[in-house]
Amino acid sequence: MNKNKVIYLIEYLSMGLVLSYFIIHNIYFVLIGITFSIYLINIELINSIKGSIYKSLDIKNISRNLIKNIKEVKSNSNEIKITTEESKLTLVEAIEEFGFIPSQDTHNDINGA
């Protein structure tokens, strides 16, 4: 069925349910008919709210993925730092790190050359 045909069917159904009170005398049918009518009146508002909710959920999922990626990058950078610390430092790196030129004696790195 076409979407417009379904909407027209719900319109007639809601009107029929409200008017059925005069024949059946059941208030539940009237309440269901009023609910359908309120839905049809506010269908555009409901669809826009659903769209904004889906967009916000999509943004939250994107932000969660970004946070996971940032954590992975940080952990990878920590691994890189560990590997560079384990390797021997060049003279330039040693000067940058310690702030002075270290001596060649490995046991006496405290005093500069």
Q: Which tags fit this structure?
A:
5 helices; 78% helix; single chain; 113 residues; mainly alpha
Describe this structure as you would to a colleague.
The chain is mainly alpha-helical. The protein is 78% helix and 0% strand. It is built from five helices and no strands. The chain has helices at 3-19, 21-24, 27-41, 43-86, 91-98. Helix 1 (3-19) runs antiparallel to helix 3 (27-41). The radius of gyration is 36 Å and the shape is rod-shaped.
Radius of gyration over alpha carbons? 36 Å
Helix run count: 5
Biggest beta sheet summary? none
Order of helices and strands: HHHHH
- Tell me the number of strands: 0
Class by alpha and beta content? mainly alpha
Which blocks of ≥5 consecutive residues have pLDDT under 50?
none
